[in-house]
Fold this sequence. Notes:
This protein is an alpha/beta fold. The protein has 13 helices and 17 strands.
Amino acid sequence: MTAPAGRPRARSPGEAFPPDDVATMRIALALARRGLGNTWPNPAVGAVVWTPGPDGPVILGRGWTQPGGRPHAEPVALAQAGAAARGATLSVTLEPCSHFGKTAPCSHAILDAGIARVVSAIEDPDPRVNGRGHIMMRAHGVTVSVGVLASEARWANRGFIKRIVEGRPMVTLKLARTADGYAAACAGPRLMITGPEAAARVHLMRAQHDVVLVGVGTVLADDPLLTCRLPGLEHRSPVRVVLDTTLRTPPGARIVATAREVPTWIVAALDAPGAAETALAQAGAVVIRVPRAPDGAGLDLLAALAALSARGVTRAFCEGGPRLAESLALAGQVDAVEILTGPDRLGRPGLPSIGPALAQIIERDPQMERGEAVPLGRDAWRSYARRR
Ligand SMILES: NC(=O)c1ccc[n+]([C@@H]2O[C@H](COP(=O)([O-])OP(=O)(O)OC[C@H]3O[C@@H](n4cnc5c(N)ncnc54)[C@H](OP(=O)(O)O)[C@@H]3O)[C@@H](O)[C@H]2O)c1
């Protein structure tokens, strides 16, 4: 059976792609990761212009989506390659765009540069593209191969794809827990569970997300800043989002007091007091209103996530607390989980870090891939990812 004209030919499972196509796509995926958290609402894409050489591909140009989503990866890589792009191959982690937005479409730039062949990981689900970029380039004589490292590229683009297809951002949950499984003590001062290596890892993850999300319980208990404070990456702090049904967040909380430097959005119920909104807005925070949950317990999470998506958010990093984490699990909105386990036991009953719905996801959901436990200083770090 032949594929419809202009559509990528589906590969059978065991059919291998040429090694140079795979190697250059790996480079393009690594470049794409540089933009994570920094390109929304656009996807973080990587592109490589190359030509075959006796010892493997010769790289002529590299590009990744620039802060704010423009320029796209392809024109950056093409500009670096210059005249050498004529007759060369371009490997790209997402189908080049074909529509006129604020800039000319990348597929036009590719044709203008004289690229002979495009190796693309996946189609762009954006209805304005959705295969048209590939069709257009084929129609102009460019050879197009689609599907190289497709599952890796789908994962790298998961936030963008989820926003386009479902109208919600990808959610990564981060939990720190004691060796006996607690997120916090029931009362008393904040528990320091993990060490400096884990903190650095968490700050890097903040930089790779569009927003960091917490419930108001965490703001009231810990008064966190939730910024990225890694040297050199301070400018990569995500927007801070608090789910706060009745606007209990104090205007003096650090997350509000710093809202003019790093944006803070507070999601509240439609009937939350207007006076509290005024005080928070005067301090620099933005209040977003959504309905309450149908059962009355907090906010309607799907509506809250849809409201973030409507503002362009593709990747949300949830740092707790346990109540919000469990609600996200119950709502089926957990795409990845990062668990950091400290070496010390609490040694008395505290707040369990993992509720029953989340335990079900990480222990029994066949779609959750479980990574190896990796040591981070004195702590252990394990990742789970919903790759399908
Ligand atoms: N170890 C860790 O990784 C970690 C991380 C964060 C926090 N903590 C600890 O956890 C404790 C706070 O726990 P927590 O569970 O109360 O905090 P939380 O999950 O941050 O906040 C829960 C609050 O968020 C609001 N909320 C609004 N909509 C919600 C929804 N759909 N689902 C869930 N919550 C919603 C609710 O308050 P309203 O109804 O008033 O809006 C709810 O009480 C603190 O002791 C903190 O130190 C530990």
